[in-house]
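Thread title: Can someone regenerate the structure for this chain?

I was given the following input by a collaborator and told the matching structure tokens would be attached. They weren't. Posting the sequence so someone can regenerate them.
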Amino acid sequence: MKKNIEHNSTDTKNFKETLNQAVKNAGTAVSSTTEKAKTALTKSKDSILKTIDTNGNGEIDIEDFIIIGLQTPGIKVNRTDFLNRELMKNYPPEVIESAITRNPAYAQIPACEIDKIADEVIKFERNCVSGISAALGAPGGVAMVATIPADLVQYYGYMLRAAQKLMYLYGFPEIDTTEKEHKFDSETMNLLIICLGVMYGVQGTNTALKAMATALGKGVEKKLMNAALTKGTIYPIVKSVSKWFGVNMTKQVFAGFFKKAIPVVGGVIGGGITYLSFKPCCDKLKESLRDTLLSNPEYHSTKEESVIIDAIEIQEM
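Best answer:
Regenerated them for you:
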């Protein structure tokens, strides 16, 4: 009996040691897997940053998406071609020529007709966005990372294309999207940043855009407008918008994209964001542009806009 007790005790001890070792090994394996996952995730984040950071400042910001977006085929909009294509359906050549040389409002095209075209533009671009893959919300973890920049670039690319079209419909002159040594003019970049700021409701951008429209409507020289955008009265607003986008884009890229719990139907660039975000953003820009001196000759600037306009004009003195 004593031998049996000792034998059972030995077996129990061996079992406990085996179990403890198994638990230890399992813990080591889990720890190793976790470390590998963390390493892979870090590499993936670094890879995304390297892919997106086209302006080379070591951060993800709105400039990166504008640069990549404008480099994407089909995103740049030629003002003359666009206005000619949209207006030739209902207007004679002389009216179209006037709209191109000056702007649609100057050509006496009714505001309601411009609004209809603008709505069709928004609808078209929204449908383009809805076709972007919802892969960002699908399972797959690190393996899906490679799709993130492409899908985000498409999303903001369509937003940039919509912005250009809306600006041209409501009277803005041609935007210089010519690439010079893989870069775009600062004034072009900053104007588009202001427009995107309006689309997202960033404070101060609506006033800045309307003030620019008034200045252009009054015939302020291009060099003065460029100065205001790059170092003058509008520039602080540009910096504020860039900062806002920088914070939110970093969250977009890294916070949402690495959570396993995002369902496919809630994909970051899936149909949900198309109708809940994209269209309202475009509508905000449309509403801002449709009531400026470029689109409405009877428009009167607010006090806040007048301060900016005066500052732009003072640069000439």
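Residues 127 and 274 are 8 Å apart (CA to CA).
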